[in-house]
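Section 5: illustrative case.
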């Protein structure tokens, strides 16, 4: 159970990528007071949590209805996570985020940015959605492990929330270059985990 929790937490923490999102969150909330910024972070995190849980089970049953096997899901999920890791490593994801921030700043309303772009896609982005479907599917025959996965998700979201709330203080002591470097290291770990998912899926599919 501990291994399941650690693996799930690491995957969620990396795919949520709060460290990479932090500069964009601060840009969107730069004129907000600390109390308002905290409210935005809490609301966005709660909304993202329910979106991820809903997507995990609805997405899983949809895939089952389409006849998609767990092994195929591992391979597909691994490939998606690999592309996202490459995006982070080469900062393509960063460019897309900057565009979203610019669009949000043009018509900035704190009530609007809670859902988009903070809850979606900064927290509950494609990588995190793919990860939770993959993990829930991976433990399809072990329902008790779903609880561990959800606890790991909550833990990762709490860490993300703490980073967002304390973001303005964190960036004073940590330069942006450090944040970008850390995000790239996380992306490298994500690429390794994605590779393992692909290998496991291929082995199971071909009985290797």
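Designed sequence:
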């Amino acid at each position: 159970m501990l291994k399941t929790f650690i693996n799930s937490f690491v995957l969620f923490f990396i795919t949520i990528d709060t460290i990479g999102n932090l500069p964009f969150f601060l840009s969107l909330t730069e004129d907000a007071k600390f109390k308002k910024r905290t409210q935005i972070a809490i609301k966005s995190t709660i909304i993202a949590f329910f979106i991820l849980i809903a997507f995990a089970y609805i997405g899983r049953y949809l895939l089952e209805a389409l006849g998609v096997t767990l092994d195929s899901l591992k391979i597909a999920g691994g490939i998606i996570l690999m592309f996202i890791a490459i995006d982070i490593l080469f900062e393509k994801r960063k460019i897309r985020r900057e565009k979203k921030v610019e669009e949000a700043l043009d018509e900035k309303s704190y009530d609007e940015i809670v859902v988009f772009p903070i809850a979606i896609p900064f927290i509950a982005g494609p990588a995190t959605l793919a990860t939770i479907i993959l993990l829930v599917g991976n433990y399809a025959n072990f329902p008790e492990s779903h609880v561990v996965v959800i606890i790991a998700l909550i833990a990762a979201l709490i860490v993300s929330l703490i980073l967002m709330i304390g973001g303005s203080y964190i960036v004073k002591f940590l330069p942006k270059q450090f944040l970008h470097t850390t995000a790239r290291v996380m992306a490298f770990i994500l690429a390794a985990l994605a590779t393992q998912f692909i290998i496991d899926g291929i082995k199971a599919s071909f009985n290797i």
